[in-house]
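Query structure, 319 tokens:
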């Protein structure tokens, strides 16, 4: 049985993925950048990125039998979010808690992964004996594979940006032994002279265009890092309590092209509607578990969310 790339892409569209491209698992062109990034300590406590480096640089080592990688984009954008209606102005500190858009709906890992599995099943029905799925988990250099599959360019904020779409999407991939025809890489850089994302970062986390010191990124500080948030950074969090959207919000490609997701499960659930600064201080473990176990907020846990609220509501002291 054979399947064409067009049939795979049509199935991806039926599953509400907004784009699909195909590349191979050959070594990435930017392995040296990854080594330099890790050596400079920009991964902080994300030790898994060091452990996965060899496979990120050479994706053939991820799934030995793979001959092609099917890459999909999963739009999570929704205009109405928890941060709307709370007087967010010019990205400055506000009184309400701000949750990054990608985390306002159901747990995205499950939502993207479930539909990715259906696409993998389609490949199996059409002759694949290997069709392994990855979405934000595993040693996959997702943005580079997506760029190579023709889906967009890597912007100065390090996001994969797609013309006519922007960057409000997750990336998923399927490593398969099907020999599918490959797409051409997306070669141009559409950022031009724009530097909006670099200028907008509240913590100054960009060392240079396309190089992010993750240890200064609010997303890392509120989700990945354990332990306290250093005072110098805590004072700059601008009300973000889980993740951060500042370098995506200002991107002209998002401002012009973002369109609401067709995936119901990504719609905002109002996890923190009406939450005041003491919201988590009053809560015990049982209540946190009951209300947040199936949301992205479960990752930092109750202690982490208390820490995030304290930091996000603290004031900057260095002017
Ligand atoms: C670790 C991680 C983080 C870290 C570090 C982020 C970073 N920029 O490195 C932290 C916790 C800070 C983070 C934050 C966020 N993340 Co994150 N994160 C990842 C993860 C797991 C690994 C990324 C990684 O390897 N970083 C190491 C650096 C060195 O690699 P890289 O940024 O991919 O850069 C490579 C290329 O850019 C290339 N390169 C360098 N220069 C050039 C130049 C050119 C021209 C080209 C072509 C390539 C190239 O070389 C690098 C090495 O391979 C990926 C999932 C995955 N498996 O890839 C998700 C992922 C990148 N994150 C994602 C998201 C959504 C976010 C947030 C928006 C969430 C939020 N709202 O808070 C923020 C955005 C912050 C930002 N500006 O990046 C999405 C991005 C989707 C997209 N449109 O690009 C991903 C792909 C998850 C997913 N499956 O959807 N994240
Ligand atoms: S997510 Fe926020 S803190 Fe992180 S790099 Fe982007 S603007 Fe800076
Ligand atoms: S804000 Fe400007 S520089 Fe940054 S990713 Fe978007 S277009 Fe590129």
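Result returned for the query:
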């Amino acid at each position: 049985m054979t399947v064409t790339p067009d049939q795979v892409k049509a199935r991806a569209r039926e599953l509400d993925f907004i784009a699909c491209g195909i590349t191979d698992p050959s070594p990435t062109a930017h392995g040296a950048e990854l080594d330099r990034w890790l050596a400079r300590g920009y991964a902080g406590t994300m030790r898994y990125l060091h452990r996965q480096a060899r496979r990120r640089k050479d994706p053939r080592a991820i799934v030995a039998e793979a001959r092609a990688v099917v890459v999909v984009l999963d739009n999570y954008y929704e205009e109405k979010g928890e941060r709307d209606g709370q007087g967010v102005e010019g990205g400055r500190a506000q009184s309400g808690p701000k949750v990054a858009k990608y985390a306002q709906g159901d747990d995205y890992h499950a939502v993207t992964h479930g539909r990715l599995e259906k696409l993998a099943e389609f490949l199996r029905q059409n002759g694949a004996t290997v069709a392994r799925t990855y979405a934000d988990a595993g040693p996959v250099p997702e943005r580079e594979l997506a760029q190579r599959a023709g889906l967009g360019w890597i912007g100065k904020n390090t996001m994969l940006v797609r013309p006519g779409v922007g960057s409000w999407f997750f990336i998923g991939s399927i490593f398969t032994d099907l020999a599918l025809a490959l797409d051409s890489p997306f070669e141009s850089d559409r950022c031009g002279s724009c530097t909006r994302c670099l200028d907008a970062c509240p913590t100054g986390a960009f060392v240079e265009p396309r190089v992010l010191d993750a240890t200064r990124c609010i997303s890392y500080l509120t989700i990945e890092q354990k332990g306290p948030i250093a005072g110098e950074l805590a004072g700059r969090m601008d009300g973000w309590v889980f993740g951060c959207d500042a370098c995506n919000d200002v991107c002209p490609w998002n401002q012009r092209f973002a369109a609401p997701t067709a995936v119901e499960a990504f719609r905002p659930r109002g996890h923190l509607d009406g939450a005041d600064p003491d919201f988590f201080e009053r809560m015990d473990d049982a209540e946190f578990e009951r209300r947040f176990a199936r949301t992205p907020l479960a990752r930092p846990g109750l202690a982490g969310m208390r820490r995030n609220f304290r930091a996000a509501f603290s004031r900057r002291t260095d002017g």
